[in-house]
Amino acid sequence: MIEFKKLLVATVAASAAVIFVAGLSISDTRSAEGKQCCDDASVKYAQDLWAILVKRDLVGPDMEADTPYKGQAPHGAILETIDTTVTVGSNFLGFGGHKSEVILKRNYGGDGVSIDAVSKDRAKFLKAITVMFKREKGYDPENNDWFWVKYKPDGSLHTNPKGMKLAGRVMKGKDKGCIACHAAVKEKDYRFGKQN
Ligand code: HEC
């Protein structure tokens, strides 16, 4: 009987290890994608990231208030910027995944937009949520491994004029777009910081 129990414990432990490792390797293969952006893997990753942001009430129907301030182009007239840490891609047991820094910017605009108006009704003025998430080392070494994404308030992705979904190494190597513009502050790890 004792032997049987030992065997049982060993089997359970071994299965847990397999599940854990399987969870890890799923997130690893995702990071191995080589495309610039906007491919299926980047879109899927953006969806996983969105799900975590909703869970943390950083976006979505129960979005928590932050402090709106006057922004500048190309982001909204009024902005809220939040810098925190989230884990993307853990398996169903909560193991694995990539825990890292996320900078999330809520972009508000439209007729009548002001700090006061946004404070009273965020949903009315929210146009986009632009996000930088620090991926695994080697994801995009030339650009400090940032994952770039532009969401609509419902979590779907904004597209550029060519219809490309804005998620991943957005416009890498081009002279316009997220990476090109933020490269102006490359020495500050691509962070502009609040400008006003
Ligand atoms: C033409 C230049 C430009 C482009 C293109 C641009 N940004 Fe920005 N971004 C800025 C500036 C300027 C700020 C600082 C705004 C402020 O807070 O006043 C900023 C701030 C941010 C921040 C907050 C972190 C920081 O750097 O302060 C995030 C996140 C962000 N941008 C994401 C994106 C994403 C994602 C894209 C592409 C979809 C993008 N940006 C495209 C200029 C740009």
**Number of helices in the DSSP assignment:** 5
- Taken together, the total number of domains comes to 2
Helices and strands: which structural class? alpha+beta
Q: Ligands bound here?
A: heme C
Mean pLDDT: 86
Helix content: 25-40%
Tally of strands: 6
Order of helices and strands: HHEEEHHEEEH
Radius of gyration (Å) = 20 Å
Poorly predicted runs? 18-33
Commentary on this structure:
- The chain contains five helices and six strands; from the N terminus they run ααβββααβββα.
- The chain has 196 residues and is α+β, with helices and mostly antiparallel strands.
- It folds into two domains: 1-34; 37-188, no CATH class.
- It has a six-stranded antiparallel sheet with strand order 1-2-3-4-5-6.
- The radius of gyration is 20 Å and the shape is globular.
- Mean pLDDT is 86; it is low at 18-33.
Characteristics:
binds heme C, six-stranded antiparallel β-sheet, 196 residues, 2 domains, alpha+beta
In short:
With 196 residues, the chain is α+β, with helices and mostly antiparallel strands. It contains five helices and six strands; from the N terminus they run H-H-E-E-E-H-H-E-E-E-H.
